[in-house]
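Milestone 3.1: sequence recovery, worked example.
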């Protein structure tokens, strides 16, 4: 079972960039579908980006062309490169893992991203 810890959040001006990281401990990281979700107060978590064990990716329409998800299976790491950030990207960002065979899932505790001038 993996444990997930996010880092890299912070305050950035509109148009700026941040790179989020998710460190996974445990076995079989390469077998997990990995996601980034985000949530703003009073809303449900929304899927931002997904990467499969085979490194296929997909993105929410609102972040396409601005965000890039990637993974390093050798280091058990997941990343989200966020460029051209907008105030509406302000949210808590969560790392999420689903084992591709057992469907076991795990959540990280989240990292705050604030886009403001």
């Amino acid at each position: 079972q993996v444990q997930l810890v996010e880092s890299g959040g912070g305050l950035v001006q509109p148009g700026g960039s941040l790179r989020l990281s998710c460190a996974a401990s445990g076995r079989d990281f390469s077998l997990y579908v990995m996601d980034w979700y985000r949530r703003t107060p009073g809303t449900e978590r929304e899927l931002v980006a997904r990467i499969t064990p085979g490194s296929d990716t997909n993105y929410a329409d609102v972040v396409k062309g601005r965000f890039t998800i990637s993974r390093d299976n050798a280091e058990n790491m997941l990343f989200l490169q966020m460029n051209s950030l907008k105030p509406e990207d302000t949210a808590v960002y969560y790392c999420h893992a689903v084992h591709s065979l057992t469907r076991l899932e795990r959540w990280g505790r989240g990292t705050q991203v604030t886009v403001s001038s």
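The two ends are 40 Å apart (CA to CA). The mean pLDDT is 96.
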